[in-house]
Amino acid sequence: MSVREVRVALGARAYPIRIGGGLLAAGDWAAEIRGRHVLVISDANVAPLYLARVEAALAGHTLGRLILPPGEREKTLQRFAQALEALAELRASRDATVVALGGGVVGDLAGFAAACWMRGIAFVQLPTTLLAMVDSSVGGKTAVDLPQGKNLVGAFHQPSAVIADTDTLATLPPRELRAGLAEVVKYGAIGDAAFFAWLEANVDALLSREPAAIAHAVETSCRHKAGVVARDETEQGERALLNFGHTFGHALETDGEYGSLLHGEAVAIGMLLAARLSAALGLAPPQDAERLQRLLVRFGLPAVMPAGHDPAQLLHLMRLDKKSVSGALRLILWHGIGDARIVAGVADDAVLDVLSR
Ligand code: ADP
Ligand code: ZN
C-alpha cells in the first residue's frame, strides 16, 4: 500500500505525518533521527508486539527503553519522573530523541518528558491506536493527569515526525478501534459534512479494518487536525473546536474516575449531548443530532448517558474543565453537521436539562 503524507505547517517546526502499512519495519523514519541517544517509551501490551521492529530500525543508536503498565491510570507524575530518570540513566544529551510507541497514554507522557528534558528535546510519535493516529499524536499537546483531573500538567511540544503504521491496528482490541472512530466522526461533525457522509457509507469497511478505508479515515482526520494546529497551535481560537463533545466527555470520564468509559466513548456521548443542546437552544436542526446518534450507534459507540451520574455534579465538573474561562460555561456546539461553533454564556438550566434526559 502506498504511503500517504500530511504536513503540519509550523514554519521551522513543520513535520510530516506518514500513514501506511509496514512503516515501522521499513524504518526510513529512523534515518532522520540525528543524535546518538534514543529513549523508546511503550507499554506492556504494545512492546511485545512492535518494539522489536522499532529497535531494529534504530540500530546504531544508543538505546534506552521504558515499558509502562498499560492504561490511562499510569499517566501520572510518578511515571513521568521515571521517564526522566530513564533519560538520565541513558546520559541523554540535548540532541537525544524520545520515541513514543503506543497509544495516547504513552504519547502524552513521552511527549511531556521530551518537552521537559533539558528544556526540550526531539520527539517522534509512533501511534499504534486509531485514536492516537487521528488525534493525540498530532498537534503537540503533551500531559499527565492528576487525581483532580485529566491532563492538568503538561506542555505544548510538537513532535518532529508522526509515523502511523496502520498495520499495527490489526491487533487493536475492537472496543479501542470503536473509541478511535468517535474522534474520526468528530472531524466530520465539526467541519466536514462530506466526510461525515463518507463515514456513513463506510461503516462496515471501517469496522472490518479494510486498509484503504482506514487509511482514508486517518489521512482525512490528520489533514483536518494538521490544518487547525497550523492555524492555531496553542488554542487561542479555532483549535477549541476540536473539543466538540469533550467538555461533556471529560466530566463523564472524571465522574467515573476514568474507569468505566474509554475517552472515545465519553466523547461519543459528549458529542451527542452537545448536538442535543444545540437543538434545544435552536442553533441546529434536531435531525442532525439524530443522524449523529445513528452513526455513533452503527460504530458500536454508546449513545446514551450511563446511569448513576448526577447532572448537577456533571455540570460542576464541566465548569472545572480547563476549557471554561473563569467559571462561565463556554461550549463547543454546532449549527448542524459540519458546522461547529464556540458558544459562550450557555445557561446552566439548558445544560442540566440535556444532562437529565
Ligand atoms: P488511547 O490511544 O486510546 O489514548 P491507550 O494508550 O490507553 O489509549 O491505549 C489503549 C489500549 O490499547 C492500551 O491498553 C494499550 O496497551 C493498547 N494498545 C495500543 N496499541 C495497541 C495495538 N496496536 N495492539 C494492541 N493493543 C494496543
Ligand atoms: Zn479526544
Question: What's the arrangement of secondary structure elements?
Answer:
Blueprint lengths: L3 E5 L6 E6 L2 H4 L1 H4 L5 E7 L3 H11 L4 E7 L8 H13 L7 E6 L1 H13 L5 E6 L2 H7 L4 E6 L2 E8 L4 E5 L8 H18 L1 H9 L1 H5 L3 H21 L14 H10 L7 H18 L5 H13 L12 H10 L9 E5 L5 E5 L3 H9 L1
Parallel strand pairs: 2-9, 3-4, 3-5, 5-6, 6-9
Antiparallel strand pairs: 1-2, 7-8, 10-11
Helix pairs in contact: 4-5, 6-7, 6-10, 7-8, 7-10, 7-12, 11-12, 11-14, 12-13, 12-15, 14-15
Bound molecules: adenosine-5'-diphosphate (ADP) and zinc ion.
The site of adenosine-5'-diphosphate (ADP) has 23 residues, from helix 5, helix 6 and helix 7.
What does this 3D model show about the protein?
This protein is α/β, with parallel strands linked by helices. The chain has two domains: 4-171, Rossmann fold (3-Layer(aba) Sandwich); 174-356, Up-down Bundle (Dehydroquinate synthase-like, alpha domain), CATH 1.20.1090. It has helices spanning 23-26, 28-31, 47-57, 77-89, 104-116, 130-136, 174-191, 193-201, 203-207, 211-231, 246-255, 263-280, 286-298, 311-320, 348-356, and strands spanning 4-8, 15-20, 37-43, 62-68, 97-102, 122-127, 141-146, 149-156, 161-165, 330-334, 340-344. The strands form three sheets. It has a seven-stranded mixed β-sheet, sandwiched between helices. A two-stranded antiparallel sheet has the order 7-8. Helix 7 (174-191) packs across helix 10. The radius of gyration is 20 Å and the shape is globular. Bound molecules: adenosine-5'-diphosphate (ADP) and zinc ion (ZN). Adenosine-5'-diphosphate (ADP) binds at residues 43, 45-46, 49, 70-72, 102-106, 128-129, 131-132, 136, 168, 171-172, 176, 179, 263. Its EC number is 4.2.3.4. Belongs to the sugar phosphate cyclases superfamily. Dehydroquinate synthase family. Its cofactor is Zn(2+); Co(2+); NAD(+). Residues 66-178 form the 3-dehydroquinate synthase N-terminal domain. Zn(2+) binds at residues 183, 246, 263.
